[in-house]
Amino acid sequence: METYSFFADRTLNHYNKNDTLFVVSVLLLWGLGMFTLYVVSATNGARFFNDPLYFTKRQLVSSVVGFIVFGVMSVLNIQLIRKGLPYIVLGTLILSFLTVVPGIGVNRNGASRWIRLPFFTFQPSEAVKFSIILFLANLFDKQAAIQRKEDRSSVPAAVGLIIFVGVILLLQKDFSTSVFIFGVGVILFIVSGSRIMWLIPFSLLALPASFLMVTLEPYRMNRVIAFLRPEEDMQGINYQNFSARRAINAGGFWGEGIGSELTKLKSIPEVQADYIFAGWVEAMGFIGVIIFFLLLLFFAWRAFRIALTVGDRFTALSVFGFASMIVLQSVANCAVVCGAIPSTGIPLPFFSSGGSSIIMTLAMCGFILNASRYNLENSIMAERIEGVSLYE
């Protein structure tokens, strides 16, 4: 079977009230993330900026911006957002190209992944995560509207996905993010009912290409070597992974405690960023791991439930993509910290210090909340009251 559809064809006619439980899940994850950042970043804040609350304050400011975006995205007409999609996509591509413009792009550790704005720096790849989901959902919805299956094509969506991934990979040299975005894009191809036979030959080409991209950059090879040989060179390429595992082991079952001196996390470089989960586990132990994943599961339940009950294909695919982006990114980050997969540099949503990440994560959540008012059950009920069924 070449095609199958995860979402049924639906029309969008009626609103339902907001999903309050989804809002609760967002606030709980954000609150836990802020608390964790406060706990683990005090040492680095005092050491480098003479302010234990430096990273916490920055994250609070970014969160204020993020919640403003969250509010806007939760009340805008989704069809208006869709009509503005060309500008969103074009704006995201322009921001991505600006990373290599002298005076605007910011080079850190040999990679230009940020741009300098009036009051802060911004990472365009985070905006790409937002734009690519809407872009693909829009194309898949248009293809589904074509009556003859023979006339449907996945080529425009595939080309768009490759362009976005190529910009991040070639201009910003961010292999991990580009692979992750490509993977979420492939998931949307599958759940949208697009033809998936093209994935087989494409995957055969992607594997040697990925191998080549890894071998061309020494730091990527070091990450692979560190993953394959975790007990070697613990003061070199394995230092960060070793420090993270040591912090996790120190946490034990109950954790070292919030008010205790968390000595192990002090050895983790930039623990407030990609390895913040290790600090949380040292403080709260296995109980903290359970708490985190229960909250993530709660978030996933509400978000995917909205995707499965919303009354419009474009909105449903967008919500599914946003939910997948946040949940899979969270799982991938935790897997890196625990040593289950090679280091990726992908932040932990709601937790990792970084304005771009928290702003775009809350933007995705705002869209999901907006979509929660497009409830399938209420749409069916309203249509039947009017004497018309969506499924006849």
Describe this structure in words.
- With 392 residues, this protein is mainly alpha-helical.
- The chain has 14 helices and 3 strands.
- A 3-stranded antiparallel sheet has the order 1-2-3, with no helix packed on it.
- The chain starts with 19 loop residues before the first helix and ends in a 7-residue tail after the last helix.
- The relative contact order is 0.17.
The whole-angstrom Rg is 22 Å
- Straight-line distance between termini: 25 Å
Share of helix among residues?
Answer: 55-70%
Helical/strand content category: mainly alpha
Count of helices?
14
Largest sheet: 3 strands, antiparallel
Shape: globular
Low-confidence stretches: 1-15, 377-392
The SSE string, one letter per element, is HHHHEEEHHHHHHHHHH
Query: Strand order within the widest sheet?
Result: 1-2-3
Defining key terms:
392 residues, mainly alpha, 3 strands, globular, disordered C terminus
Question: What is the compact description of this entry?
Answer:
With 392 residues, the chain is mostly helical. The chain is 65% helix and 3% strand. A 3-stranded antiparallel sheet has the order 1-2-3, with no helix packed on it.
Question: What's the helix and strand layout?
Answer:
Layout: H1 20-49, H2 54-75, H3 78-83, H4 85-97, E1 105-108, E2 111-116, E3 121-122, H5 124-144, H6 155-171, H7 175-191, H8 199-216, H9 218-228, H10 239-251, H11 276-309, H12 313-337, H13 355-371, H14 376-385
Antiparallel strand pairs: 1-2, 2-3
Helix pairs in contact: 1-2, 1-11, 2-13, 4-5, 5-6, 5-7, 5-12, 5-13, 6-7, 7-12, 10-11, 11-12, 12-13
